[in-house]
Amino acid sequence: MKTISSLLQTVVVSYVILLLACSTSTAIAPINMTKDGVAIKGYDPVAYFTMARPVQGQQELQYQWQGARWLFATREHLELFRENPKKFAPQYGGY
Predict the structure, then answer these.
(1) Is residue 55 part of a domain?
(2) 3-state secondary structure of 42
(3) Closest of 84, 28, 77 to residue 49, by C-alpha
(4) Is 65 among the domain residues?
């Protein structure tokens, strides 16, 4: 009887730990990037929000985030992204 109770307690504790681990996970999807490390094929992620269309970014305006280089069409877009990249980064890493 004591063994079953002990086993049940172990299972419950393990389940709670698993739930806590899953709920606190903040994993970010891998970024879609070129072999040169440029995210979303060099398009400006902020332009999709501010200009409602894809705009190619400039090499001179780039920011390193999540292991990728993000390019921007304007300095303002670069600053907006730098302040809050999660707001502008594409969902699912841009795939």
Answers:
(1) yes
(2) helix
(3) 77
(4) yes
* pLDDT tens readout for residues 11-53: 454 555 665 555 444 555 688 999 999 999 999 999 999 999 9
Residue 30: count of CB within 10 angstroms of its CB:
13
Answer for the pair 78, 69: CB distance below 8 angstroms, yes or no: no
Query: Does residue 33 fall inside a structural domain?
Result: no
Task: Count the domains in the chain.
Answer: 1
Taking CA atoms, 74 is separated from 39, 67, 78, in Å, by 16, 21, 7
Helix (H, G, I), strand (E, B) or coil at 57: coil
Q: What percent of the chain has pLDDT over 70?
A: 72
Please state, in angstroms and rounded to a whole number, the distance separating the CA atoms of residues 68 and 74. Answer: 18
* 25 within a domain of the structure (yes/no): no
Compute how many other C-beta atoms are within 10 angstroms of the C-beta atom of residue 71: 24
